[in-house]
Amino acid sequence: MFSSLTDCFTLANGVKIPCVGFGTYKTPDGATCVESVKTAIEAGYRHIDTAEFYFNEESVGRAAAESGVPRGELFLTTKVWNTHQGYDDTLAAFDASMRRLGLDVLDLYLVHWPIAKDFKAEYPARFIDTWRALETLYRDGRVQAIGVCNCLKSHLNVLFGECRVLPMVNQIEFHFGFADADQLEAAEYSAANGLVVEGWAPLCRGKAFGNPVLAAIAAKHGRTEAQVLVRWCLEHGVLPLPKSATPSRIREDADVFSFSLDADDMARLDAVSSVGRLGPHPDEARH
Predict the structure, then answer these.
(1) HEC string of 2-59?
(2) Among the options 45, 54, 109, 138, which is catalytic?
(3) Helix (H, G, I), strand (E, B) or coil at 10
(4) What is the spatial distance between Cα 26 and Cα 30, in angstroms, rounded to a whole number?
(5) If DSSP codes are grouped into helix, strand and coil, which group holds residue 163?
(6) How far apart are CA 128 and CA 130, in angstroms?
(7) Reduced to 3 states, what is the DSSP secondary structure of residue 57?
(8) Whole-number Å distance between alpha carbons of 200 and 173
(9) How confident is the model over 96-132, as pLDDT tens digits?
(10) What φ, ψ does residue 232 adopt, rounded to 5°?
(11) How close are the terminal C-alpha atoms of the chain, in Å?
(12) Over the range 16-46, which residues count as b (16 or more CB within 10 Å of their CB) and which as e?
């Protein structure tokens, strides 16, 4: 099992992706984002996750450039937003993201949602056209790997039936206390088809803290509840994307490699379903 932040999952095309990523959702653009990403890199993170919709790509790119860590040692991800889906719009959105990030080549580019409410009538054609744009970027060497977010089994099957390059990643809501059958199926189906599963909101956006089962297991191991939540994802073979703008918590969330959860811990944690879904259902994403 993983023993440091620089240990990696291996994507289907052989590209290595560090086993824990630093999330930046809702981290404000500017000094807050720059400093939090720099702190994460200083703490050992080498995998930074952003998105067009987070409106902080420029700060992520600046932090990476100013970190002192060689570009080749960092793994940077961004995503195309729903309003820019479609072949030509996706290519234009990618160019804009690259300008903001200050990059020539991106490590991972993802489709943020398979369906958005305003474009349901255009599904699946718009989704497939978006994927074709990612395939073009991949074939042209502008991105090292491509994938999707928030895809259930039905969405993946749409792509599997049409794509020339299979998605390599599926980033989904995956965290303690969320036992949705469709979501668990999505994780299992993705892994069975060679996709690395990334889990967003692994810290449950703070809604799990104080849960008696979580608190007891954290106390058993002498760790914080946040550390147990990150480790829980890794024990499931899922790549977690914890997020914080507080330096002490950024460092804490990275310190998850000196302990492990045993089978009893995992069974007790897996039995909890009280947190529930934190984001929209994949068929109900905003525009």
Answers:
(1) CCCCCCEEECCCCCEEECCCEECCCCCCCHHHHHHHHHHHHCCCCEEECCHHHCCHHH
(2) 54
(3) strand
(4) 12
(5) coil
(6) 5
(7) helix
(8) 5
(9) 999 999 999 999 999 999 998 888 999 999 999 999 9
(10) -55, -45
(11) 39
(12) ebbbbbbbbbebebeeebbbbbbbbbebbbb
36 three-state secondary structure: helix
The band of 93, judged by pLDDT with boundaries at 50, 70 and 90, is very high
Quote the CA–CA distance of 62 and 30 in Å, as a whole number.
Answer: 10
d(CA 256, CA 22): 13
Tokens of residue 201, six digits: 């909101």
Q: Can 54 be counted among the known catalytic residues?
A: yes
The amino acid that residue 266 corresponds to is M
pLDDT tens sequence across 240-285? 999 999 999 999 999 999 999 999 999 999 999 999 999 999 998 8
Residue 36 Cα distances to 145, 152, 193, 236, 245, angstroms: 25, 31, 34, 27, 5
Q: What is the largest CA-CA distance in the chain?
A: 53
Q: Are 85 and 101 in contact (CB under 8 A)?
A: no
Phi and psi for 21 in degrees, rounded to 5?
-110, 155
- The span from the CA of 4 to the CA of 254, in Å, is 9
The answer to whether the bond into 124 is cis (omega within 30° of 0) is yes
- Residue type at 276 in one-letter notation: G
Q: Which tokens in the block code for residue 262?
A: 């045993």
